[in-house]
Every structure is written in structure tokens, then in C-alpha cells.
Write a structure and sequence with these properties.
Blueprint (H helix, E strand, L loop, with lengths): L13 E11 L2 E10 L5 E7 L10 H37 L1
Antiparallel strand pairs: 1-2, 2-3
The structure holds zinc ion.
Length: 96
């Protein structure tokens, strides 16, 4: 794990406020914006998969990270939309 302590107060508790997958050449990494829960200082971390390249032998592990990332995204952005769709479908079914 990278060093996730706050650069300001050395607190280890922080939350991810933004997370995005980036590529540099063939290497993929996850860029995370974090906020310290103690002093609210914001800092960035980059999490790379050592020796992993897209299409390489560890590609499956990379895909798993992408899926995890997608799950985070779905949870944040689409959960409410999905619930809305389910409710709408239910209402349509009740009409007929
Ligand atoms: Zn701090």
C-alpha cells in the first residue's frame, strides 16, 4: 500500500473524494484525491499495479481493479437512477 498518511498532520484516517483510472503509456494507475479526516487537508495518491501492463500476464488483476472502480462509480452515480428505474417499472406494471 502507498503511504496514505496526511502530509500535514500524519493522520492515517482519510476518505477518498475522487477516484479515476488513468493510463501512462501501457501502465494503468488509479489517481485518488483524498481528504484527511482530522485536518481536512486534501492530497492525492496514485496507486499503480506493479509490473502490470494492459494485455500483460497480470491483466486479469487490472480488470478486477477496473471492475472495482466501476462498482464505486455505479454506487455513486447510478444507484439512485437504478432505484428510480425500478420504481418506474413497478408503477407501469401496476397500471396494467
Ligand atoms: Zn491531516
Amino acid at each position: 500500500m502507498p503511504n496514505l498518511r496526511c502530509p500535514e498532520c500524519k493522520e492515517s484516517m482519510n476518505k477518498v473524494i475522487d477516484s479515476r483510472t488513468k493510463t501512462s503509456g501501457k501502465r494503468a494507475y488509479i489517481h485518488r484525491r483524498r481528504e484527511c479526516l482530522n485536518c481536512f487537508y486534501r492530497f492525492s495518491t496514485s496507486e499503480t499495479l506493479d509490473d502490470d501492463t494492459i494485455g500483460g500476464p497480470c491483466c486479469k488483476r487490472y480488470i478486477k481493479v477496473l471492475i472495482d472502480h466501476l462498482n464505486d462509480y455505479l454506487n455513486d452515480k447510478l444507484k439512485s437512477q437504478l432505484i428510480e428505474d425500478i420504481v418506474n417499472t413497478k408503477e407501469q406494471n401496476e397500471i396494467y
